[in-house]
Amino acid sequence: MRVYFLRRVFELLPVLFLASIVVFLLLHLAPGDPSYFVAGRDATPEVLEAVRQKMGLDKALHIQYLIWLWDILRGNLGQSALSDQPVAKLIWARLPATLHLTVGGLLATVLLSLLAGLPGALRPNSKVDHFWSAYSAAAFGIPVFWLGILFILLFSVRLRWLPPSGYVSFLEDPARSLRFLLMPALTLGIANSGVLSRFIKFSVLETLRQDYIRTARSKGLAERIVIRRHALRNALIPVVTVAALMVGRLLGGAVVIEVVFAWPGLGRLLLQGINNRDYPVVQATLLFVVLIFVTVNLITDLLYVYLDPRVQLERSSAA
Amino acid sequence: MNLSDEADGARSASEAAGFRMDKLNGGHPAYAFLKRLLRSRSGRFGLFLVLALIFLALFAPLLVPFSPLEMNRGDEFEPPSARYLFGTDQFGRDIFSRVLHGGRISLLVGFGSIGVAGLIGVGSGLLAGYMLGMVDSVVMRLWDVLLAFPNIFLGIAVVAVLGPGPFVSALAIAVMNMPHFSRIARAAVIAEKQKEYVEAARALGASNWRIVIRSILPNTIPPLLAQIATAIPRAILLEASLSFLGLGTQPPRPSWGNMLEDSREFLTRAPWYGLFPGLALFLLVLGLIFLADAIRDLLDPTRQNID
């Protein structure tokens, strides 16, 4: 396990290194003088010159990259060209809202997927199965921002049950916070349950066909126990992996959802950065997202090995 | 030599694609495939939806009562009626005309970007899988890096450099789809390379490229077809997302994404505004998903998992 862990971390380094080059190059591929983007719109010639010096724009590109990378590794993500605030501070301020939304979305996804996936697996071809299959297909195809708009139309404009937009920290006021979270999380949850519920259904169906299920039944165990103790437990191992892999999808979906519900998270920070050509913000946010995404994938892989010992055997013998 | 390797390649390809049946019907394998597709319920439903929407988008200029950009003064925020089927927007533009025209962007970007992704992805995958070594490492590392960016963020990164627009978002969507095609083609080459028919072709003196194109490429068709079928609806959703975020098609040119973005400001005044572009997008994607499901079922009858 430890060897596998170290090997996986080691494999990540080149990917992160190359991704950082891509992010670094954004600034230099964009049309215009990079120092102008970094120093801000109304920088005086002296400030521009100082920024040029600091970024090493008169030096070779790879030296510039090393200067940039060294700064980032020391935790200095630069200043926002627009507001002059440190980018790290901006990201830190937006992070809780995005985490909030992602965790809420993940919970909604898992609950809805179990609700939609299990009945079809336990009673194939029944009416319940057909209903939830149709739900899964619709959930898979529905554009997440349209669903959000429909929810606002229904729950805020027509019924006036929930606030159409905004965010309150859970630590500040849990009850109000949940009211604001409900629609965005539900929207994310429905959109992502399309994939996950079908995965759950097929995983359980597959498990029910295994020999050990037949054995459990033939030794006279009650069907309830067969399902709960033998089938579900085994079927849900791959589901954990898929659910964790969905964090990437959730992060992506969160950007769009943040716009629909005016949610002050990282996604909107990134979009503001793009619209204002605030490259330090864009670069740092992108790098941060990649880091999260890659780390989550790593954790997922490790979790899978931990949950299913067979995988470990295969991998370590192959290594 | 011609005969032997062509026959081999063609036969194994059609077998892998599940074209063995329909011996009595004979004819072209694509024809047999279409026939079987129409036999499945989700295939019929998907094909109908997709063809209907393609038809509406393709002939939009002939079908719509107004130009998508025409502003009708005094008719702002008209609810749906006989004159304005889907109502009008804040400039008095006919939403029905704009929805039909918006479909052209979605389809063009969806099919176009996946086409480009398929060509470059498959080409690079064949090359990597056949040459292995250095070429393989470089190509595969490149895809690893792209896969480290969650899709929409890669799109945002590309737009950050090149600026917004439908062409740029198509390019971004093409780039993020290349790794998948490349990996499929590479895996197929590596698997097929060891088979006897490839050795036979080589013994007969066929050149490398001839072997790859004539013998190996046809065998990659079933998994690639399945990949294309799943990638297109995603590409269309992504284009709409980027337009919704203001990074894709720019107003006043209509696209479903930017119309939905526009509609957010007027949810209370004109609830119908956001309804129709979203519905069109939903139906197109749903049709494509059903079609993709039917195609994958045909290609692999034992398939259990999705995604």
Description:
The complex is a heterodimer of chains A (319) and B (307). Chain A has 13 helices and no strands. The N and C termini of chain A lie close together (12 Å). With 307 residues, chain B is an all-alpha fold. Chain B has 13 helices and no strands. The N terminus of chain B is likely disordered. Chains A and B meet through helix 1, helix 6, helix 7, helix 8 and helix 10 of A and helix 6, helix 7, helix 11, helix 12 and helix 13 of B.
Radius of gyration of chain A, in Å, reads 24 Å
Content of β-strand of chain B: under 5%
Question: What form of chain B results from the Cα inertia axes?
Answer: elongated
Give the low-confidence spans of chain A: 312-319
Assembly state here?
heterodimer
| Radius of gyration computed on alpha carbons of chain B | 23 Å
Give the class of chain B from helix and strand content and strand pairing.
mainly alpha
Give me the count of strands of chain A. Answer: 0
What about the largest sheet of chain B? Answer: none
Low-confidence stretches of chain B: 1-24
Q: Classify the beta-strand content of chain A into a percent band.
A: under 5%
The total beta strand count of chain B reads: 0
The amount of helix of chain A comes to over 70%
